[in-house]
Structure formats: C-alpha cells, structure tokens
Amino acid sequence: MGKTMFEKIWDAHVVHEQDGNTILYIDRHLVHEVTSPQAFEGLRIAGRPLRQPKATYAVPDHNVPTIDQDKPIRDPISAKQIETLRNNCKDFGVTLFDLGDIRQGIVHVVAPEQGLTLPGATIVCGDSHTSTHGAFGALAFGIGTSEVEHVLATQTLQQQKAKSMLVQVNGSLSDQITPKDIILAIIGKIGTSGGAGYVIEYAGEAIREMSIEGRMTLCNMTIEAGARAGLVAPDEKTFAYLRDRPYAPKEDLFEKAIEAWKLLTSDPNAKFDAVVELETEDILPQVTWGTNPGMVTDINGKIPDPEQITNPKERKATEVALEYMGLTPNTPIQEIKIDRVFIGSCTNSRIEDLRAAAAVAKGHQVSATVNAIVVPGSGQVRQQAEKEGLDAIFKEAGFEWREPGCSMCLAMNDDKLKPGERCASTSNRNFEGRQGKGGRTHLVSPAMAVAAAITGHFTDVRSFGKS
Amino acid sequence: MQAFTKITALAALLDRVDVDTDAIIPKQFLKKIERTGFGVHLFHDWRYLDDDGTQPNPDFILNASRYQGAQILVTRDNFGCGSSREHAPWALLEYGFQAIVAPSFADIFYNNCFKNGILPVKLEIDQVQMLFEEIESNEGCQLTVDLEQQQVTTPQGNNFTFAVDAFARDRLLKGLDDIGWTLQFEKNIVQFENQYQNTAPWMTIQ
Fold it and tell me: Rounded to 5, what percent of chain A is helix, strand, coil?
C-alpha cells in the first residue's frame, strides 16, 4: 500500500520505537521568549548541553511592543523575558533574530522567510501555530515547554503517530475568496475538535492554485480544528519560494533536495483515515460570531438563534458565546458595527496579506468610529511593504502602521481591546479575552477587515466600492 | 516530576465545552520566567471581578464553598484547546488539580499534562454526564481516580474504566523524566544523525 506524505516524513525521522512510543528526530527548533525560559533553565539545572545549536533559532515576538522598538521596553516584566531570551541564546549558542534586526518578526513568518522551513523537515516550536510551516510540506507542530526542553537536550521528541485526514478543496480560487475564508469554512464544517488526533493534508485544485503565503494561512489555522498539523505537498511554487533564501540549501544541494522533495507527495493509493471535501463555489467570505473559530458563518449570514438549536450542549454554548459577544440572535452579520480593526498575526501578516488589504483600502478612509492598526509580520515584510508604498496607502486611509510582532492577536503587549470593544481581526482565535479582557473578536480575512474598517460594520468585500 | 498513582479527593465541576488555555491562564500571566506562581491566576478572568485578582467572582463555580480544596476537575469536551502554553497545566497543578476528567482533550494540552504529573482522564460522554449528576447532587462528593487500575469510582458505586497509553501511564506512575529516558538511546540519535548526512544532507545548516 502507498504512503501518505505524513507517513513518508514520519518514517524518515524515526530514531527509535518502543511500546508504541517513537523517538522522532527534529530538524528545526524555533524558539520565542514566552515558552522557552523554563526550558533553558531546566537544561541548566540538569547540566545538559543544547544538542544542536545549528538547528535552533530564536526570535522575540509575543511580547514585543509595535511602537518604538528601538527604545527600551517599558513593561519591566516583558523586558526581563526578552532579556532572558537574549542571555539564553548567548549562553547556549543559539542564533537570535533580535529586536532591531530586519529579520525579527513573528516566528512563523520569519522562519519561512529565512529558508529555515524546508519540505520534508520536522519543525517544532513552543507555539501551537507552528502548524503554519506545513504549507511547505514540513511536519510542523506546537509543543509545550517540557517538550521544548526535551528537544533542546536531545534534538528529538517522544511521539505517538497521528492518523491522517485528507481535506480536499475542489474548484478554483476566486478573486475574493481567500485562504482565510477556506480554512474558516473547513473549521466551521468539521468543528474545533474535528481534527483531533489527525494530521490534515490539504489537496485539490484550490490548494494548488494557492500561493505559499495562502497555504501558510491555511495550515496556520489547522490547529483551530484541533489537528496536530497541516500539510500541503510541495510543488514548483514551494521550490521557487525557497530558492536563495538565506538558510535554504544552495546550488547543487538545492537541486538535489528538490528531487527528493518531489517524492514527498502522498502516493495515489495511499489510504487516509478520514476524508473531507469542500467546494470553493460554496464558500463566501467568512465572519466568526462566537468565542471559538468554529462559530462562524458567512457575510450573508445571521447570528444563530439558540432557540432553534435542538442539541442542548450546543444551545448552551451558543447562549454563553452570544452573551459574551453582546450579540442578539438573528442579527444580520452585515449590521454588526465594529470599534477596532487588527490586521496582522502569524495567520495574515505576510506581504500578500498586506497587498490584499491595501488594495481594498486604497482611496478610502477608515470610519471615524473605528481605530485600525496594521502590524506587519516581520521587519522584511515591513520593508517590502514600504518599498511598494503600501504603508502610504494604509496611512492615508487612516490605519496606524506598526512595527512587527504578535501584537493584538494575543494582546501580551500594549495592543489590546478594552472591555466591550468589538474587533474585526485577521488573527486566528476569537476566544474570550484573547485580544484583551472583555474584548469581542470576529475573525475575518485581511480584505474583509479593511472593508469593515472603512464602513464601520461587516461588509461584503466582493461588492465593496462597487456601488 | 511528581508521580501519579491513585487519589481519592473532592471533585469540582466546570460545565463548559471548549475551555481554552487562554481561559485557563490568560496571557498577561505568561511573562514570568519561572515555572511557579501561576495557580493564583488559574481561570483569572472568570475567577475574579477585578484585574488584580483581589475580588473573587461569586458566580464562578470554582469559587463556590463546596468546591474549595478540590483536586479533581470534571469538565466537558475539548478541554485545553488553543495555545500550547504549558502554563495551563502548571496553573491547574499549583491550584491543586491532579486529575482532570473530560470526554475529550485538546492534543497538546493532553500531552503537557503527562509531563507535569497531572492525569487527564478520557471517559465516554455519558459517563461524564453521570459524574456531573452525582457530583452536582452530592456536596463533598469524592471521586477515586486510580491510574494503576485505570478506573474512576464514585461514592454511589459507579465504576468507569478509562484507556491510557501504556507508555505514558508507566511514566506517570513512576514520575519519570522523559529526557532521561530518551538519552538512554543517545547512540541511536548519533547514528541517525550520521546517516541523515547521507540521506538528507540539505537539512543540516553548516
């Protein structure tokens, strides 16, 4: 029987197997300031060295301010955490893309940009959105701090093999149905635990048409369906993206790698444990209405009515979510007014996202009742956007143009919602309090976020500016 | 790591599905560089009325007097979803929870529990419902969670068997360090790395 891409990558990294437990070799370990200090401390206490400094790369992102990054960080606890990362990197010989370095940014934007993310690699990070790197055909997943320490010490992880799910997205990508809409529709269909126990491989015409950035958005939010990882088979787009990146293999070695990467694709007779199919023609721009990413509808939808829900648990969860979100059943999505807009995060802060956002923003003004910020994913994204004049478009339209970091996706820095504020956000989680205590988050694509910023309420970007 | 074998202790109920790790330990408490000091912030935004955590929210179920001192948490589907933060199990353990019973858990959280001496117990959805009913109607209800026997027993005589990976079970019963176990196979790691230089030389950064 043939093998899935997941099985091929898995098999190529098995160091040892015992009692259903596998020691899996890890090719790349990405580190940030929030989930690593206790792991480095663990190494010190046990007197263990870092096994592979050349496989370990660090960047501060969760905690960093997005204004005045060249000045000392005002929050002393944040400053200490970032200083701790610096010291740990120095002590253990880890390459650090520090604040002030053009390469600094959100870890899941930076690693692909630097060519650290390669097809067929195993990649881990103490961050659930490590699934992003699956866009290249890498087996990439988030781990806890104990596992971070385990990888630092052994360059391996103890793992149990997940099952395989194929998500087939049929039909062509249209101009204004974005990868964000597709992944939100998938999560809406299978639910926030629908992928639990699986690695999801995405396939189909729409996935092939998708850019590498789009595939990253798709794989990024795979964790929101509860899956361990997402995967897209590498192709010519992947190879073109990686060619000449700083840490990617060069010249003959790169050509040799491509030959091997082409073989990673799932065999035609490979068997998946589950298969889900979607048609792009059924997908409209998506907007979440509740407190998890599976609570989603499209721009023509309405807020659900708990009284119409027969399953008691689902009814109760809907009631709790609507109460938190301050929403009335049956309200049309397009009538929901917003206070804030956040364009950024490891889901949607790459150059292509900013281009899509700027294309909608151009020549318009952010509504007087809305505060909107754009936070590029990395220093390089920021620089590229400025070269293309996107920053000028945003600023003229009334958006704030910030410096790179995770920012208001998780609101560990000063960028946060006030209680009761409602935000159209391109990030990945609409959990209670995620963007600030009492804040209300609606997840959308970058283009939809801009349309909402301008009109002050959710607006169908497909007809925006055409009337 | 502290071993887990068997406990008989007060059980508390948290009747919510999809409890995420942001709710378990909100982001403002993730800036510490130590492993301790998180228990006081467990479920902070639900548990307290004020940002400083000085005014307990009387409506939050774990603040109820009947649940003070609980060491077992019984809850609903997909507990621990979202962020990979291990601060979530650290906070639960420091608060006092040693076992969490639910119909399902999010993957990363489930693994993180075993690394910290917390036993996550998966039971059938109707079994969890029975636990809810029994605990709800009997103040002071103590459950026994036995990892050796892989059983949850209740005062009324319900006895539910749960499945757990044999390897993870063994490790938790003995409180063994994962890194120490893996390093027994260091020569396999070295061998793998040497061979990998031939099979995937592009993967190594010089």
Answer: 40, 20, 45
